[in-house]
Amino acid sequence: MATIVNMPRLSDTMEEGVVAKWLKSVGDKIEEGDILAEIETDKATMEFESFHEGTLLYIGVQDGETSPVDVLLAIIGEEGEDISALISGAAAPTKEETTETVTDTPTTTTTAKSDAVSIPAGVQVITMPRLSDTMTDGTVATWLKKVGETVEEGDILAEIETDKATMEFECFYEGTILYIGVQEGETAPVDSLLTIIGPTGTDVSALVASGGIVPETTDAPAEDKKETIVAAKIEETPSATTTANTSNGRIFASPLAKKIAADKGYQLSDIIGSGENGRIVKKDVENHTPTAKTVEVVKTETAATAVAYVASGEEKSEEVKNSQMRKAIAKSLGNSKFTAPDFNLNIEVDMDNAMASRKTINAIPDTKVSFNDMVVKACAMALQKHPQVNTSWTNENTIYHSHIHVGVAVAVDEGLVVPVVKHTNQLSLTQIGASVRDLAGKARHKKISVAEMQGSTFTVSNLGMFGIENFTSIINQPNSAILSVGAIVEKPVVKNGQIVVGNTMKLTLTCDHRTVDGAVGAQFLQTLKTFIENPVTMLA
What we know:
Blueprint: E1 3-6, E2 16-22, E3 29-30, E4 35-40, E5 45-49, E6 54-59, E7 66-68, E8 72-77, H1 84-88, E9 124-127, E10 137-143, E11 150-151, E12 156-161, E13 166-170, E14 175-180, E15 187-189, E16 193-198, H2 205-209, H3 255-264, H4 282-286, H5 324-339, E17 342-350, H6 352-362, H7 371-385, E18 391-393, E19 398-400, E20 406-408, E21 410-412, E22 415-417, E23 420-421, H8 429-444, E24 458-462, E25 481-495, E26 498-512, H9 518-533
Parallel strand pairs: 20-24, 24-25
Antiparallel strand pairs: 1-8, 2-4, 2-7, 3-6, 4-5, 6-8, 9-16, 10-12, 10-15, 11-14, 12-13, 14-16, 17-26, 18-19, 20-23, 21-22, 25-26
Helix pairs in contact: 7-8, 7-9
């Protein structure tokens, strides 16, 4: 019996895919596990694996062609089998046939509903939520409720560590915790069984055995249907991922729309849907102008792991599991380092005027400006004069940003986060200083939201406070450049032909050569030097 293979969803934001290359041809024998094709998504080019055996009878999307998700990609069956009805659409696959829908990776397949079991009355299955746009799995840092405990709507069930932060996971049901599927310290993929809530004494062994797979539900209201919500909410966005009928005050929304809304911190109740029956779809969320609150995250602090030293002459090593943040940092920086052809430019800046200006500014009551604030402001103004540096590279286009959002690297116990000062060029020195201190404090206490770490167009990394005079940074993609700021050093300098004591600071600009050429980077640094050496020009 022929099996239809549709264009898979290989990323959470993917709506269409491009067949970069077919690795099999019509007539080829296919074994389970064979790579059929390379498919280009919005994020990467991925190998697409076959989960069926047979002969490749039909290819619906040729090399280089683009197709929406869930559209006919190929048909696999027995050699010589008549598939004309399937191709024309005159007949649909029978119940024995399986349609592949790959969600996060090419090896994940959603198939037969027969694996699902019925949900006992009043029982809610909760799965590992997707709490950030890049999250593929989560680690349960702490369970705040135990099996057998009664929970109310609004109770915090657990603290979940994502690739960006540790976030409180709120309960939106009432009942008793009947089962916990992921123990403290364990890591599980997004959408895997996290916990089950329901009436005390309810037998959920069948649900546990099925891995929490439940029958599919529709958005249409039906009293006799059990509803399963597989989504998580951050404390201030309880409506961001719920779905159901409007007759009881709940909201229709597509899964992708719910995810995007949750990531952006939007309330679904504030968004007008343009889909069928007022259903909220992706474009509604993307076009929504928030009135808005930012999403609040994380509550607890994780202490840095301490190494217990042993007596002289002994050898001892200890393995410490990588946190989600460290994994994300490694992945992001690795991709940046090995995909962006970067180069470095260095310049030394006279800081005497800057030091005098800062002293004068900080003499004003309730005013505090740091040298880093002055650098951030100078960068924003220099970016206005050199828009080529305020860009992002894609395979098809170079994106010129009309807005200037400067990211400021902040070291935390577990790694590095980059809070973003939005519309930096429109802010004064004191406003930048207040914003940076606020964001850095949130980052160090793990209270910073995902929205406050997204959208940078340029990044500043400062290690001067540690006495580092000169260093280079890895570009924070999708930025085109990053500035490394060293310490202010007192040393002999030549001024007006005389050797005098002066204060200097070294700056290193790391550029993506795909968007920023050497001359452009050099001109940017010259402009930046002028602003920093003459702070009064930033106030004009």
